[in-house]
Design brief:
Helix content: 40-55%
CATH topology of the largest domain: D-Maltodextrin-Binding Protein, domain 2
Number of strands: 14
Largest sheet: 7 strands, mixed
CATH architecture of the largest domain: 3-Layer(aba) Sandwich
Shape: globular
Low-confidence stretches: 1-36
Oligomer: single chain
Mean pLDDT: 90
């Protein structure tokens, strides 16, 4: 009986301890949540914008009484690893960015990490949504029946936008006898301007085509210009072959640039940073580069006198399209205790005044379409063409990676004289047919396995 009493006493002691620990842990958890709710924490990778972000955070705290903690994790590779690790442990901050392809973006959403901003964007007659560039929002949107099986909606806020265009050095054009206020707008004018530059020993086009995605970008621009969006998309679907005359005409543009001596030496192995140095130091009259270059060129040569324009059109049949959209975007953590505060801050962050400030300080294009009149002229020239932007991430269909590699490396081969446009067209189409057959085989196997 005595032993039984001891066990009862021990049971009550243990029960009291469990209750105490439960109350203690709940109390600690509540305190931790309360402290978390006091500030909005934002993780980012943009070291060049850190000071501007901190200044805006201080301004917001003064105006709204809410503290914003910007936490920088650079370089971008290290940031990406941190975000992935935080997602796995459910320790993401209130606001963060995702540096990955659309497929990875979709996986974050489907795992419940990203808040759907659609209702917030559409409040008050879509006031927030309407002030942002639609092409930038499209990068952060998933439409009905998307291939990633994500609930339709807007899942990110663009804080700036970008597009890739042609840059021209006004001083070098003037030296060659070309009116610097009227840069070449057509392909024939482009070739003629280059001939005038060559006569004075001035190199033509610099670009980082050792990074083959930039070749893909320029080729895509001219594909849209020569044959139009529908035909480009039908090629990706396999309905139009790469041996079509329009594709051969596209490949021949690179042959013409080679034969005209328009490209700087070593362009097929050149990284973009080297190309940027050439253009910034007036060693090339033209550059194919993105709007981020405004900040880069300012750092390399603040006195550089240059402008931005659409690549000279090779056809009058269709408009010239350029790659562009959201430059950097922020997402709200769907599991955050501060969703409402985070959303309100991002609304403020993308208001006209803050966007003008960011554009001036960081020399990036604002995502707010009403902020363009107060930014540097060259940024305005980039911004003027945002309606001409497109990007593979919004096409809803993509080419096989092997075909893309064959396509881009083949253009490099044309530039160095190893292939003709016709030879490349045949090789790319052969790769396309092979990959389509492989995909069909896998599809049939999946169906048979069901």
């Amino acid at each position: 009986m005595n032993g039984f009493n001891k066990r009862i006493r021990a049971f009550f002691i243990l029960s009291s301890l469990v209750v105490f620990l439960s109350v203690f842990l709940v109390s600690c958890s509540s305190q931790e949540q309360a402290s978390t709710e006091e500030a909005v924490t934002i993780w980012h990778w943009m070291s060049d914008r850190e000071n501007a972000f901190l200044e805006l955070a201080e301004k917001y705290e003064v105006e709204k009484g809410i503290k914003i903690n910007f936490e920088l994790y650079a370089p971008s590779d290290a940031y990406t690893q941190k975000i992935r690790a935080a997602a796995q442990t459910n320790t993401l901050p209130d606001v963060f960015g995702i540096l990955a392809e659309k497929r990875d973006f979709a996986s974050f959403i489907k795992a419940g990490h990203v808040y759907n901003l659609t209702k917030d964007m559409e409040e008050d007659d879509s006031r927030w949504r309407k002030k942002l560039f639609s092409k930038a929002l499209a990068v952060n949107m998933f439409l009905e029946d998307n291939s990633f099986d994500v609930e339709p909606g807007i899942y990110g806020v663009p804080i700036d936008v970008t597009n890739i265009q042609m840059l021209y050095n006004k001083d070098l054009l003037e030296q060659a006898g070309w009116d610097p206020d009227n840069p070449p707008r057509t392909w024939n004018q482009f070739l003629q301007a280059n001939r005038m530059l060559k006569e004075r020993g001035i190199q033509g086009l610099a670009s980082g085509w050792g990074e083959i995605w930039m070749i893909d970008c320029m080729a895509s621009n001219y594909a849209f210009n020569i044959m139009g969006e529908d035909k480009v998309m039908d090629t990706l679907r396999g309905k139009v072959p790469y041996t079509d005359p329009d594709w051969i005409r596209l490949f021949d543009l690179f042959r013409q640039m080679r034969d005209e001596g328009l490209l700087v030496k070593g362009i097929v192995t050149m990284v973009n940073k080297t190309a940027e140095q050439l253009f910034a130091n007036s060693k090339a009259a033209f550059a194919f580069n993105g709007s981020w270059c405004v900040n880069v060129y300012h750092g390399m040569n603040p006195d550089l006198d240059y402008g931005a324009m659409l690549p000279p059109r090779a056809s009058d049949n269709f408009p010239m399209m350029v790659w562009g959209g959201a430059g950097s975007s922020f997402m709200v953590n769907n599991k955050s205790l501060n969703i409402k505060k985070a959303v309100e801050f991002l609304k403020w962050f993308t208001d006209q005044e803050q966007q003008v400030f960011l554009a001036r300080e960081t020399k990036n294009l604002p995502s707010n379409r009403h902020s363009l009149k107060d930014i540097p002229e060259v940024l305005s020239q980039f911004a003027d063409d945002m309606d001409n932007t497109t990007h593979p991430s919004i096409w809803g269909i993509s080419e096989f990676p092997i075909v893309i590699e064959k396509f881009n490396k083949g253009i490099q081969s044309i530039i160095i004289g190893e292939k003709t446009p016709e030879e490349l067209a045949n090789e790319v189409q052969a790769a396309k047919v092979k990959e389509m057959k492989r995909a069909e085989m896998f599809r049939r196997r999946r169906e048979e396995g069901k």
